[in-house]
């Protein structure tokens, strides 16, 4: 399962943010997403078991993002797949905790580096060009909204 957005998706975003204001707005979004996800799960009327497959995919995406950001920082090749999941059968709270902790790590990695992150770039392992930090994080932020909508749909029993 690939988590690396296709080049067309990433090309919608500039390589660098237009200003520090847009960068800070993006960082806020990246930081609050796990909290909004947790609230959606806490408000689920009939439990969260039906959302487990989706939460597992979201946790895998966060693991992938954490690794991809490290590759961007150091240079190298960004691979499209996430590392294998931890063994065991996690429940929803454990998956949300994993998503939260991985996102916190990713957020801290980019937030503490300041504007240096704007220059992070690495080659795509599939040979389709390069990936820069800002367009990747903008795409992740867009995907966060879609993921949250999907979780809410599943929790309502509509998906």
Report the portion of residues in β strands: 5-15%
Indicate how many domains the architecture comprises.
1
Question: What is the overall shape?
Answer: globular
Query: Compute the gyration radius: what is it?
Result: 16 Å
How are strands sequenced across the largest beta sheet? Answer: 1-2-3
For the secondary structure, the number of strands is: 3
- pLDDT under 50 segments (min length 5)? none
Helical proportion, percent range: 55-70%
- What name does CATH use for the topology? Four Helix Bundle (Hemerythrin (Met), subunit A)
CATH hierarchy: architecture: Up-down Bundle
**Name of the CATH superfamily:** dinb family like domain
The termini sit apart by: 20 Å
Order of helices and strands: HHHEHEEH
Number of helices: 5
Mean residue pLDDT:
90
Decide which structural class fits the backbone. mainly alpha
